[in-house]
Amino acid sequence: MAGGTALLYIVAAFAEIAGCFAFWAWMRDGRSALWLVPGMASLALFAWVLTRVPVDAAGRAFAAYGGVYIAASLTWLWLVEGQKPDRWDIAGAALCLAGAATILWGPRGA
Looking at the record's lineage, which domain of life comes first (predicted)? Predict the structure, then answer.
């Protein structure tokens, strides 16, 4: 992925994951409802950043984002939750990133 586009997708992914994790912490881990405040802000940041991706159609931006989200989720799993992804996780993420790149930069007919 081109540098700027990749960075936008990565920032969006971690903002979305952090926002969803705040809800997870509240609902599943019994944390305070105050976790929802930064969680909502993080989800708003995610949506805003994703609109900055230089793609001609929202659906294409969202589809390509999916691959980046999967890879970022496995990074979160490792760095935040302390569970190292296995070879199947890594292989799956690599396939998803290849799919995202194909969606973004595959040749389009006129």
Answer: Bacteria
Which domain covers residue 42, as residue numbers?
3-105
The pLDDT, as a whole number, for residue 6 is 87
The answer as to whether 110 is a domain residue is no
* 8 Å CB contact between 85 and 94: no
Sequence-separated (6 or more) residues with CB below 8 Å from residue 41: 19
Whether 45 is in a domain gets the answer yes
The amino acid sitting at 43 is L
pLDDT at 39 over 70: yes
Measuring CA to CA, which residue among 88, 59, 63, 77 is closest to residue 17? 77
Number of domains in the chain: 1
